[in-house]
Amino acid sequence: MPSNAEPGIHALRRAIARWQTWWVRLFILSVLIMPAVPLPRVWAVLCMVVPLLLFLVRPPARRPEPVVLCAPVRGRWVAFNSPGSRVPSHRVRAHGQRYAVDVLREDAGAPGTRGRTLLGRSPEDYPSFGTPVVAMAAGTVVHVSDHLRDHRARDAWPGLIWMLTLEGFFRLLGGAPAILGNRVIIRHDDSTFSAYAHLRRSSATVRAGDRVAAGQTLGQVGNTGNSSEPHLHVQLMDRPRPESAAGLPMQWSGVEVDPERLSLRWATGYARPSAVPGFPANGQYFDAPGPA
């Protein structure tokens, strides 16, 4: 169980990390205006370097035993960007994503290669879109946001390049809301917090303050925030705000991993030593108990 009491240096790191979005904004602003400000070179450099260094500060991380939860989806899914293959799973520790995982339903109609059209496919064309998302454990809803529109998939080269460059830059400036998109965050009875991201617009079935049971529907899979195609991003954290939260490892009870089948599209080879044992790895199919 996480504790809110931390040594001074850890508390300071968490306080600095809480403002990481503002540090990157200040860094960009400094880069733009410092050349035109008549300051000694050393001061101009410090005005740019200090915000960048503060932006790189992350909350104190630790690796307790994984918290056992139920899966956030039902039926057959594929895992990717998974802590079952490597940690940090998304190659970043920011926004509580150290042990986050993405899951989707395999799209049999997906093209083998990326297209070159300007517009990607509609989110409604994907089997994951609109699928129910359920709470991994009982708790109290502390945050709900579902007003962002579902954008088209970034399944063609122009869209992917846009996502990795200008769109990615603006999402970085927007912070966790722009990256996670529509989301629900729940405080569980053991003082951990789960976040369910990229949800479908206007699909949330709960509101802040609601008490939810494990397995209760929270919303639907969508394509909002930093998402290339409809999928669910889910993570466990030690704080409610992703900016100041450290990610926590989790395990899903009752999940059956298919050892005979692997999605080549999402598989990334062998698991790294940092991987969470027993968690579905990249490209693995898993079946979560309950109706599909």
Automatic annotation (TrEMBL):
Q: Say which domain of life the source belongs to.
A: Bacteria
Keyword Ion transport tagged: no
Question: What EC number is given for this enzyme?
Answer: 3.4.-.-
Q: What class of enzyme is it?
A: hydrolase
Which positions fall inside the M23ase beta-sheet core domain? 180-238
Keywords carried by this UniProt record? Hydrolase, Membrane, Transmembrane, Transmembrane helix
Spans through the membrane: 21-37
Molecular function as annotated in GO: hydrolase activity
Q: What is the name of this protein?
A: M23 family metallopeptidase
The organism named in the record is Citricoccus nitrophenolicus
